[in-house]
Amino acid sequence: MDFNLTSEQQMFQDSVRAFAERELKPGAHQRAHSHEYPYDAARKLAGQGLLGITIPEEKGGQGGSLFDAVLAIEQIALACPRSADVIQAGNFGAVRVLAEFASEAQLEQHLSGILSGEKIMSVCMTEPGAGSAATELTTTATPDGDGYRINGSKIFTTHGMHAHLFLVYVRFGPGLDGIGSVLVKRNAEGMRFGQGSEFMSGEEWTTFFFDNVYIPKENILLGPGGFKKQISAFNVERLGNTSRALALGEYAFRVARDYAIDRKQFGRPLCEFQGLQWKFADMRMQLDAARLLLYRASVNADRGLPSASETAIAKAYCNQAASTPPMNRSRSWAAWDIRRSRSSNIASGGHAAG
């Protein structure tokens, strides 16, 4: 068993790292504290072929693997955490559901704009009474002529204030088999936005209200019985958050290490004190173990074995490992920016999220 990257994977990782350092690291702080969606980063990522890595070439993507996307997200997150949000959304979650299950007409209408970085797609799944228990959702799709009427509400819709297209989970009928999804365009008649809010990271979310919103039958993505297919695509989405968590921990480790090398007390660098060496050793072990768990889950998912347990274990452990370096660092000296980055990771789907 070879734990090293192949030469092609190493070249890809190096090229993404160089691109991120050159194009995304400048302005990273401003993006992190802006209320606007970073379209500049989205266009740069699209130009580099980093949106749609996991989507087949015949559908406009790059035809790469989940592992390729994991490698890319980690390198982008090390340089610009806000841009990592963009690349995650361009490879996992709603865009994968769209690419995998949409009709030719739906793909032609929506996918190219998302992969070019010009448009955003958001998921409306969570409801006030249906969070982790997604099967308890109550938003309904009721037949009306040649289409459907959507009624209900959604909450914690990430990118909701900026998205152009929404993947809305709805109930066509009772039980698990009654759940499916529809596509709703922004500003559809009867669709109302709640007041925008922010996670601890500064990334925005909002609530949505659907009051008799009409959609044609062509806007059905997955009809009754489609829930399991949709969730299977979101199982691998955990890998995107996991890559960002790992990058956060690695970044914090490097900042702390460099500080310990430069900072002197009692006539010698902090890194020469054995107590701190123990902390650094523990952090390094946790981060290396986290990376192996993430790589195992992503490689096995590429082999057609998207294990829910492997992805969940990787996500939980990487988020826990990512918490260790910033917390150790903040106990020793000021670390506001790193704590904010940790908040960003938790808000974007940390280990407590589904």
Structural account:
With 354 residues, the chain is an alpha+beta fold. It has three domains: 7-92, Butyryl-Coa Dehydrogenase, subunit A, domain 1, CATH 1.10.540.10; 121-226, Butyryl-CoA Dehydrogenase, subunit A, domain 2 (Beta Barrel); 236-347, Up-down Bundle (Butyryl-CoA Dehydrogenase, subunit A, domain 3), CATH 1.20.140.10. The chain is 49% helix and 17% strand. It has helices spanning 7-24, 28-32, 39-47, 66-79, 81-89, 94-101, 104-115, 227-235, 238-262, 274-302, 308-332, 336-347, and strands spanning 121-124, 140-144, 147-158, 165-171, 179-185, 191-193, 197-198, 204-216, 220-222, 264-265, 268-269. Strands 2, 3, 6, 7 and 8 form a five-stranded antiparallel beta sheet that branches. Mean pLDDT is 87; it is low at 330-339.
Chart the SSEs and their pairings.
Elements: H1 7-24, H2 28-32, H3 39-47, H4 66-79, H5 81-89, H6 94-101, H7 104-115, E1 121-124, E2 140-144, E3 147-158, E4 165-171, E5 179-185, E6 191-193, E7 197-198, E8 204-216, E9 220-222, H8 227-235, H9 238-262, E10 264-265, E11 268-269, H10 274-302, H11 308-332, H12 336-347
Parallel strand pairs: 1-4
Antiparallel strand pairs: 2-3, 3-8, 4-5, 5-9, 6-8, 7-8, 10-11
Helix pairs in contact: 1-4, 4-5, 4-9, 5-9, 9-10, 9-11, 9-12, 10-11, 11-12
